[in-house]
Amino acid sequence: MTALTNHAPVLLIAIPLLGAFAVPLIGKLGRGARDSFVGLIALVTAAVAGLLAASVFGRAGAPGLYVLGGHQGFAVPLPSGMSIPIRIILEIDGMSAFMALITALVTLTGAFFSFSYWRERSGGTMFFSLLMLLTAGIFGMELTGDMFNFFVFLEITSIAACGLIGFRVWLKTSQEAGFKVMALYTLSGLFVLLAIGLLYGQYGGLNIAYLASALTGSTIDIVALGLLLTGLAMKAGAVPLHMWAPDAYGEAPAPMSAVLVANSQASLYGLFRILFTLFGVTVSVAALGWILIVLALLTIFVGVTMALIQNDIKRLIAYSAVSQIGYMLLGVGVGLAVSVAKPDFGFVAMQGGIFHMLNDAACIGLLFLGSGVIIRATGTRDLNKMGGLAHSMKWTTVLFMIGAFALAGVPPFNGFASKFLIYEASFKLSPFLAVVAVLSSILLLAVFVKVFQAAFLGAKPAGLPREAPMGMMIPMVALALVVIVFGLFPGFFVDKIVTPAANALWYGRDAYIGLVLGGG
Amino acid sequence: MNIGNLPFVVAALLVVFGIYTFLFKRNLVKLVIGVSLVETGVNLFLVTLGYRTGGIAPIYTFAPQAQRMVLPTPQALTLTSIVIGLATTALLLSFAVFIHRHYGTLDVRKVKELQG
User: Does position A74 have pLDDT exceeding 60, yes or no?
Assistant: First the structure.
């Protein structure tokens, strides 16, 4: 058990990667073999993520180091007698473990929902292979301690995600979305690579901890920071670089959209890691915080207003997902803006922003899975052509309602718990921020009232739509339980997992550097 | 011959041309060319970082004594980046092929079912 816990970081990347390449082979044995293999991989990955999180939160989020190639590294001797240690570093602190938990939750429910989803269609093997690859990439981004590996995992997620959006080549719109998303993902990846090159050229290292200790805040550092901010904000889907996001979430198969949101959150994690751990106090953090706040307000506002005018159910949920990215940016942006003086409300804002990542993953996941069930039952995505689903689909109705209320921040669901922390803290910085955030939440409630009225209420439809099979219901019920439990006992979860994660960003820079370089 | 900062200038120009092509051209294949130009610029930048005038390849076996070597790390980074670039370009072009099959055009102004 301890060996498993010790090696959990690398297993989290290795197991889905193995799964990704084995699924096409095992798929030849038939659908049953393929589904049980994917289910096993997904369960084992989630269990390992749970173990990793338990060990990290067990030590209150203190960072841990995993070194590939032994603790001293492979020594490569040179003729001169000197030897070069070769090491690849994974560094896991509270924030990384928190993100790993989110990824595990979303990919596990996504994979199990997909079994029923692909039982009715062909093409599932490619889907599962890409899903596993995407999972490996997301875990890699969250756990790595090296800038270049971060870039490589970023590109793995880009390619796998675009494969998932566009692998149904017979659908017209999926090809259009795939091209758009891939082009923007590639550009954002190249911005990140250029920034890494600039940092390497100055300091001769790629390790995050080493770079963080060496950074001086020169003009070239600022240029690199600007490139990283642009690239990662683009990949997280923050306005004004959000134009790919509704296409991606809307055109991917329903169980995939939720995993794509987790992918955007991984980019957001990268952004936070770079702002807090890599750059930290070497640059003017207050100005950066305000940049994040402005991006956040734009994202919240544009996302919600665009959601209001949609008639396509998936596109509508996709725009609401964009707006939720804004709440996370707002929480952490408020924290960053005041992180020099470190007042209490700054930490509360960080807690709110980080907690909202988990809450958003659960309720957006629930809504996307729900939309998959609705589209399956009605055969259309147009809200104007639906109606009366509540007559025959009682379970879906209740689950969809839970997801919608949670997303709009209605108590006692989990969205309220994290949004309340964000409102409270951003009000202390400037009441205007809280007003925009609250108003947008109310608008979001209006959006979902419209969906509810259009899809579920009304006269009995002609051929009564069937309720979803058990295989689709169980993942949705599981997500709904997460939504309710996190909403009823937010204090417990904030104490146990959110606070260590926020601590890791807010106070943890020296510990993160010290663990790799010693001293500190 | 000392070429100074010329390679950095060329790399920057490639990136700028690439972004210009990406933003202002209407043909999907030209957009892919734009992305490739940015990528080439970044790769050239990385290789230039590790280059030393008159340096030899960083292979220690049978290396002549007292020779300057170029830095190998950026070359490893560039190789990785080239492989990733190959995959992304191939994926982009195959999307372009399928878009042409569905829409009968590569003009971005006519490929816009997903708007608003």
Answer: no
